[in-house]
Amino acid sequence: MKHSPLLRVSRLFVAALALSLAPACSDDDSDPQPNPPDSGTPDSGTPDSGTPETPVYSVITQVRTAQGSQSYIVLTDTLERTEPLSLDNAIEVSGRALGHGIPGAGALYISSDEGATVTRYDLVDGNRLEQGETVSFEGVGVNSIGEYQHNFHYVSPTKAYYFDGRTSQVIVWNPTDMTLTRTVPIPNLAVSGALTSFTTHPVTSGNLVMVAAAWRPATGIGITPRAGMVVVDTETDAVTFATDDRCGYVRDGVLGPDGAVYVATETYGSAVYRVSTSSAPAPCLLKFDPETKAFDAAFYRELSSFTGGAATGSLLPGPNGAAYLRVLDETLYTVTSETVPRALASAQVWTWWKLDLSAFTATHVEALQAGAGSSFVHPVEDDRMVYVDFINNSSATAYRELTDESGTELFTHQGMSFSFLQLR
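Below the sequence we write its predicted C-alpha cells.
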C-alpha cells in the first residue's frame, strides 16, 4: 500500500486512530492527553454516536502559519454546535488541502497543493477515518493540486474527473482502484499570459458535466474578457469547449428551469470592475445550451441591471432550484481608486439576492446577512443546503443555514474551510 508523502497524521491520531471533537478551538496538539480506547468518535458523549444511523460530516480547514499553510481534517456528527470545532485531534495535511468524494459513500479523498497525489480515507468502525491507498497524477504532468473541491467530479465509485487548468486537461481516474484511466486534452483552454480558474459549482444535466472556466492576468490586476465552458460526456469521456468574449471571470453557474445553464461573473471579477472599469468587462449573466454545447448569442444581461446598479457577482445554487447573487453594500464599505479588489471581494459586505430565472428579477433576502463575496454552498441530506462564511478577517469560518434563508450560524471553526463532504 502506497502512502502519500504529503499527509502527516497528528500524534494523537496515530495513537488512537480517532477524531475527537472536544469543545475548544485550537490547532496546537502538543499537550492534549491521548483518548481512551473507547472514545474518539465525533461527539463521543452522544448515546447514538458511531451507529450506522448517525450522520458523519468531514470538514477540511486551512490555517495560515508563518511557514505557509497547514490543513486539518475534522469529523462531526452534527451541524448544530454551540462550541467551535476543535482541531486538537485532527488529521494534519501540509499545505492547502481539499477533501472530495461521493456524498454518503463513506470515503474521503484528500489532495494538497504541495503535491500531485490523492489519498483515500475510509470511514470505518462507524466513527473514524482509516488511511488507504494513494494515486499520483505526476506522470501526466500535474505537479500541484489546487483551486477548489469541485475541480474533482465523481461520476461513480469507479470513475472520477480532475479538471486541471494548468495542464489544460481532464484526468479520468478510478477512485476504487486508485489508478489513472486516461487523460483528455481541453483544446484552446490556455490563454497566453493568463491564469485559468474553474468553477466552484459544476452543473450536471443528463450525462453531461459542465465546468465554467475563467481567466485573469498572471501579473497585475485585471480580468481577461473571455468566458468558457468545458463539457464532458460522462458516457464517452468526450470533451468539448466553448467560449464567449462578452464577459469575464464567469465562474459560477446554475441549471435554469428551462434546462439551460446560466453562468455569471464571480465577485472578484465584479470587484475589479467596481474599482476600475477599464480593467475588466462589465459583470454579466450568460446562457449556455447543453444540447448545442454553445453560448446563446442572443442572451446577455449585465448583473447590475438586476440589483439597481449595484456591484453584483457570483451566481450560487440554492435548495429546490433556487439561485442567488451576491451584491455589494456600499454603506458598509467605501470603494476608492486605491481599493484592492481582492480585499473588497473578501470583505463581509456582500448581501444575498434571490434571482428568479423565469422572470429575470432579483430580490434582496434580508435575513441572509452580508458576508464575504466568495461563498461555497454544500448539499446535506433531505434537500438541505448550508454555506460557508469567512469571518474574523478570514481567520475563521462559519457554516450557515441556507435552506430556510435564515443564515443561522450552525458552527464555526478556526481557519478557512474550502471543502466539506457528508460521509454518511
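Helices lie at 11-16, 267-275, 341-346.
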